[in-house]
């Protein structure tokens, strides 16, 4: 193998590696921002539910109603948390699949010349 094809192959692989780094880095950043956003949404949901439960307690004075309102809040938060977990897991699997596609591109570029 002469020098020029080796340099070209190295250039091709470096270009693919740079594209992969940008793509994977942006997916990781989007995932991190999405996780923070989901956490803040869950926090807001929890406090809105607690506010409604306390308002119910002040209005009716019944600890029984307060307990049910608080329990409803906890169930809503658990459901939202489970849904967010499933969505995050799906995004992680898609990111992993994309990384595998990029690895195949690396292998093709290395084997091309």
* Structure summary, number of beta strands: 0
Work out the helicity level: over 70%
- Poorly predicted runs of 5 or more residues: none
Structural class: mainly alpha
Number of helices: 2
* Number of individual domains: 1
Please compute the radius of gyration using only Cα atoms. 25 Å
Name some characteristics of this structure.
0% strand, single chain, 2 helices, mainly alpha
Description:
The termini are close together. The protein has 2 helices and no strands. With 113 residues, it is an all-alpha fold. The longest helix has 58 residues, at 3-60.
Please outline what is shown here.
This protein is an all-alpha fold and 113 residues long. It has helices at residues 3-60, 63-112.
Tell me the layout of helices and strands.
Elements lengths: L2 H58 L2 H50 L1
Helix pairs in contact: 1-2
């Amino acid at each position: 193998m002469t020098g020029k094809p080796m340099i070209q192959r190295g250039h091709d692989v470096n270009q693919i590696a740079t594209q992969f780094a940008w793509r994977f880095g942006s997916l990781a950043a989007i995932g991190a921002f999405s996780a923070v956003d989901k956490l803040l949404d869950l926090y807001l949901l929890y406090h809105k539910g607690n506010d409604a439960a306390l308002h119910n307690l002040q209005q009716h004075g019944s600890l029984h109603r307060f307990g049910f309102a608080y329990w409803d809040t906890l169930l809503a938060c658990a459901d939202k948390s489970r849904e967010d977990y499933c969505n995050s897991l799906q995004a992680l699997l898609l990111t992993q699949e994309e990384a595998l596609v990029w690895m195949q591109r690396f292998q093709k570029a290395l084997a091309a010349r």
